[in-house]
Predict the structure.
Amino acid sequence: MSDIYVPGVTSRFNTDKLIEDLMRVERVPKDRIDKNVESLETQKTYWQDIGRRVSTLRESARVLYSFQNPFNDRTVRSSDESALTGTATREAVQQERNFIVKQIAQADRFLSSPQEESFRVEAGTYVFSLGEGEVSVDFRGGNLREFTEALNRRGRDKIRASLITVEPGTTSLLLESLLSGEANKLGFSGKAEELVVKTGMAERTTGFSRDIPLNQAGLGQISGSEESISVEEGALRVRAGGGVSIPLNPGLAAGPGFALAFETATEVMVPEEPPAPQPPPGPAILAPPPAVYGGVTIESEPSTVPIPPWTPPPPPVRLDNMAVLSLTFSDGTRAVLPPLQDSEEFKASQYRLGDIAGNKTIGSIEILNNNTHRDVSIRNIRVFDPDAREGIKPKNPLSVARDAVVVMDGIEVKRPANNISDLIPGVTLIARGVSDRPVTLGVESDRESVKNAIFSLVGNYNRLMAEVNVLTRNDDRIIQELSYLTTEEREELKKRLGVFSGDSTLNQFKTSLQQIVTGPYPTTVERDLSMLTQIGIGTDVRGAGSGSGYDPSRLRGYLEVDERSLDNALDTRLQAIQQLFGYDSDGDLVVDSGVAYSLENVSKPYVETGGIISLKTGTIDSRITQDQRRMETLNRQLAAKEAALKLQYGQMEGAYNRMEQMSTSLDQFSQRSNNNNR
């Protein structure tokens, strides 16, 4: 069918193909420029990738010596993380403290008794108080779910309500205060009080509170002189060596929820320095009278008494005993309260009597001050029910509001929350549970952050070195050695193999990097530490001395890390390692030496504005622009050439058609003439 000629539709001589063949030859220079532009754009992409790798290495190097370097980061180490943990800022001082967590902070959480699904909450104003604030809800009436939704909308960050299915077919209302601390007890008034009583969440009570009077006439002296005990301005003072009993008439049968509260203060006396003891003088012996005989006086020799050697008596023993308070029960037994804390100001203490007295009746409170240099004062002794609040006492408390109580190096502190940030500068303590033994909390350098920063530097260095090796070497083994590559990354690198093999810039840059990581950088903290290999980082640290033979991959400049050696160095030589990566050698408060500083410094000219990478890509852009202009010119020329060829071949076919028509006309004329002659 292709041989069929249709006048005006197809070309008799297939001029389109002839023109295309001729134009293909004409397009050879343009095709060559196209390939060159494509190659230049690919090279530009490779240079940009190198720039990104260099920038990443520069940033990871800067991290290790800049103002925010991880060597100044701090972390908190706890000997019992279930009891106490902490976080530290860079401003925290390295130190070690001992803590005892006596109590963690809690918030009120009250649960009602199971209620039927048909239970209705009456319309009205429900007021819930939390410390000095309150939440008021105007409820139009409805079921428990509607009430919890209304309360949660108003409560926000203060109080939360939820429904819990304790028993199938019923629902219990749970009210939770979102503010911990003894000062944020959950209180009820108005319709809220009626609701908690009606649902069995709480019960009305008159509460219990009994103040223990301190009257010198009613005290019972146990030890010491009368002058050692005195009552002034409502405070009982027991001087060193004194003892006193405070009888409770009648005796107190402590309920399981009762608490004993009081305030104590101590005054440490500075004893006067006693005179140095002197040996005894010994017996006084009178000299015998002289003897007179025949007018001659004979003097007697003085008498002597042998005195044994004298040993001075030992100095008086200093006694320190802060467990001076105890409870005496009606059955004759007694229980010693926890030791007090030294404080010149009165300090409050509170204990649950159920934990100390059990079901026993307390007959008296005793103070036995066996200290030799400390006076103890006590006041405001009270026994009360801490769960009772404004005539309401919870029946099913899941937890009650209380402060966190922490003892730091013998100093007891209370805070309303378990996060305590005002005790040690720069450190936030987090109380997590009661400790039955002292917890050691140490603030130290965050070695893990330093290790991660070093790993990041080594990783970025190796990725850059691999990129440079691939671009400058035409050796497929370079790619095979990079075992961490994915299949896609491996195929992509094969396209780049040896692209810049003749580029001196990258080869010089690679040499500079290798010289930096293998060169010495003296430190002042430990003068024998000056190279990365001494902390387990080098080109052959894991294979050194192994006798494994020649390995060409270890000559490519990649760094290896012996993690065990690095960990040991970080534990014992942290400050020297900091100087190894960045050090101010001339005292002008600006880092001017070290591995990280040198890596950042050598990378800077490549990636800064107007730097080497920018010049490389700029040169390529100029060449691309020039080639694109040449292509525009060639495109115009090719278009004109193709148009001229089409015109010429068109004219040729037109002339041929006219000649053919003329020949046809002559043939027809000759045939008619022949017909006429016949």
